[in-house]
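Why should sequence recovery work at all? Because a backbone constrains its sequence more than one might expect. Tight turns favour small or flexible residues, buried strands favour hydrophobic ones, and helices have their own preferences. The token representation captures these environments compactly. In the example below, the structure is given first.
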């Protein structure tokens, strides 16, 4: 038994004014559903197998239904996942060149079963091509199960970065890790907050083409009236170095760090739902193209758990709405 005043620090909930979950005592939960769907697509689509009779590959993730989450309590991680997955496969018989298609169905991937025991069903459309189906049922099934094992490994390591918060004794540990997402290379790194607790973050890179001039697109991000038109809400805008901005009824706030007219905008940027006082750094580069302007967005410091929401915010609430405004402006011209 520990002496009075010398309790095991793993069981001590330190008093914090900001309510931070020190020493991982309290129950916390993170939804892994959106992340998992992307990871499953990344690992499963493109799997290929070949033998002397033919070649097959997983061509499409047709269906992925279910959910996944990770919870933390008293420094321990608890995983829940349950998936119903349907994949499309296609293959070619080498001798005849005949092409065939079919499905791979995984009715229940869950924590209740080991991956090696997970049911994987292979079917083929009517006609010849049983040799390809056999290839899928043997080599294909093994490769699919291996990919599912990779998903579970990533769920328990990559996705959970930062869920077990460092205590004061380990506040300086490095939590840097890299990973890939379809279409974008993301770097996951740890950002320090009070008392050394770190928030795992990702860096997003997006590009989009707009049917307008560099000057017009730049003004849409720096002129209050135009910001209010594409956001369809009141805005506060001080488009100068050190100037503040507020958009979407205060859900997006930040500060301009650098403005190079018609070339580049750098700003501190955050969503209301992010941890308090945590900002990402957003760089917008305006690149002229024939009859268009390419917008290159680099966003560093997005909390891992807000990655998908942040991408959708830029793609749906910014890019699509700006294109709608430009189209309306062209029609009224």
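From this structural description, the recovered sequence reads:
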């Amino acid at each position: 038994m520990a002496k009075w005043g010398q309790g095991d620090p793993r069981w001590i909930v330190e008093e914090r004014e900001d309510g931070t979950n020190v020493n991982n005592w309290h129950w916390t939960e993170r939804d892994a559903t959106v992340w998992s769907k992307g990871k499953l697509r990344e690992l499963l689509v493109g799997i290929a197998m070949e033998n002397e009779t033919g070649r097959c590959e997983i061509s499409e993730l047709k269906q992925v239904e279910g959910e996944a989450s990770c919870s933390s309590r008293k420094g321990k991680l608890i995983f829940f996942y349950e998936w119903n997955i349907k994949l499309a496969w296609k293959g070619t018989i080498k001798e005849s060149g005949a092409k065939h298609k079919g499905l791979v169905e995984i009715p229940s991937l869950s924590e209740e079963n080991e991956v090696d025991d997970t049911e994987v069903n292979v079917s083929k459309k009517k006609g010849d091509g049983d040799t390809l189906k056999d290839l899928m049922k043997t080599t294909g099934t093994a490769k699919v199960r291996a990919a599912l094992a990779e998903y579970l490994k990533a769920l328990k390591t990559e996705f959970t970065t930062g869920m077990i918060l460092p205590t004061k004794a380990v506040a300086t540990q490095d939590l840097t890790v890299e990973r890939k997402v379809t279409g974008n290379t993301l770097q996951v790194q740890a950002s320090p907050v009070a008392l050394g607790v770190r928030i795992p973050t990702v860096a997003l890179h997006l590009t989009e083409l707009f049917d307008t001039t560099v000057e017009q697109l730049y003004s849409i991000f720096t002129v209050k009236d135009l910001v209010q038109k594409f956001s369809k809400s009141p805005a506060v805008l001080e488009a100068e170095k050190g100037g503040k901005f507020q958009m979407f009824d205060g859900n997006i706030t930040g500060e301009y760090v650098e403005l190079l007219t018609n070339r580049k905008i750098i700003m501190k940027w955050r969503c209301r739902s992010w941890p308090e006082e945590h900002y990402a750094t957003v760089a917008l580069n305006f690149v002229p193209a024939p009859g268009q302007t390419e917008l290159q967005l680099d966003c560093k410091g997005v909390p891992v758990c807000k990655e998908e929401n942040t991408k959708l915010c830029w793609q749906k609430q910014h890019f699509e709405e700006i294109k709608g405004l430009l189209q309306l402006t062209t029609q009224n011209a």
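A few observations help interpret the result. Helices lie at 33-44, 130-156, 214-220, 224-231, 307-332.
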